[in-house]
Amino acid sequence: MTTFTSSVFRTETMTVPGGTETILRGGRDLFPLLPAALHGIRTIGVLGWGPQGRAQALNLRDSLAGTGIKVAVGLRPGSTSADDARAHGFTEDDGTLGELLAVAAEADLVILLIADAALAAQHETIFQALKPGATIGLSHGFLLGHLRAIGSDFPAGHPVIAVCPKGMGDSVRRLYVQGATVNGAGINASIAVHADPDGHATDRALAWSVALGSPYTFATALSAEYHSDIVGERAILLGAVHGLVEALYRYFRLQGADAVSAYERSTEAVTGPIARTISAAGLPAVRAAVTDQDLFDRAYSAAYQPARDLVAEIYDEVADGTELRSVILAEQRLATRPMTAIAGSEMWSHSAAAHARRDAAATELDPLTAGLFVATMTAQADEFATRGHAWSEIVNESIIEAVDSLLPYMHARDVAYMVDNCSRTARLGTRRWGPRFQAAYEQLALPALAGPADPKAIDAFLHNPVHEALAVAAELRPSVDISVS
Length: 485
What we know:
It is a single chain. By secondary structure, the chain is of the alpha/beta class. It is built from 21 helices and 10 strands. A 10-stranded mixed beta sheet has the order 1-2-10-9-8-7-6-3-4-5, sandwiched between helices. Helix 10 runs parallel beside helix 19. The longest helix is centred in the middle third of the chain and has 27 residues, at about 295-320. The radius of gyration is 22 Å and the shape is globular. The chain starts with 11 loop residues before the first strand and ends in an 11-residue tail after the last helix. The model has no long low-confidence stretch (mean pLDDT about 95).
């Protein structure tokens, strides 16, 4: 689904390669329309207080202030998150904090933001608690994949919608707060309408997206969302980045670089100047900015196909349910055995020293690092296009989310910190596929640098329609750059 209509909001048509897409440009000027667009929703229940649960509950509450629409947080009994929810103003006394099933039973819109594996285990109990006709809200399509795998479905008679921010929970809240005086500052989001028995599902999804602060909302299908989202986490958003910087750090060290310089040329280059250049001017601008364009071209040529092959393999395993089953199985193991951190490898011990040198000398766009990274990003975008995803989804899941949300956090902390502190599903996928990317770079791409660049590969890159799609979408990018202290 790339087109939609609204009885409340004025939509726009965006021209993309090969056609058009419907989008909604967000903004705080639309907040007065939210009650009408929600069509009778008086209570919104947000189940879960992880990064997305916290961010969405707070943004919804702030955007709906004064409307009479209540936002309540539902937590499992004895949840350790209750104190933090209370500290943010959700309390039992005013009915905005309660036990998970009780909140689900009261709400007209129930937003399911508990962990994927927990939702897979508890969805039937939650569905049984819903009031008749209550709208089921998701921010991720994992549950749909699980239901299909077990031969089940969402309960009949309930609208099922999704609003999926293209950034981590902290970004959703941080940009909303930073843009408090700016009309349209936030994280882009996709919407999906999976079931619409009362005819108001699209308006409700758009209202939810606007209330989160999304500057640009586009449409997708719930199945397409979880395919692109889960693949992206395992590829360019997290897994491939981790594998890339680990491989490059070792490569530069073997070439004689000291540890901090190797860290700067790998991790610092990707999360800093390369990400900023793509965000501001697009992928070809990275090639134009490097001092050794031949090395960039050789690196791009060497990395594109190995990266494309891995993205295709991940996509197949997500589409047939293998990757989702691996998450469920891992959760069963982790009940008695905690997940180990990845930050123990030698390179991460140099993070602080590299950060301390930032003011002394600006990190350059290392041509080797840039070529490998841009090739991987382009490979994911091309695979998504081949699989039939809409351009808005392609550029947001493959490029915008990376350079405007995740990579700035990685620059402020480091890549390993982000992997060790992301969602359980993303963390599991990164740990599984990051080493595969690392091996592909070390065993296939880096050895191929000795050969010449492939003119056909470079020509395909320079004339890739993703650049046109990104340029159009970038006009709607968040109007405030995220600030991470």
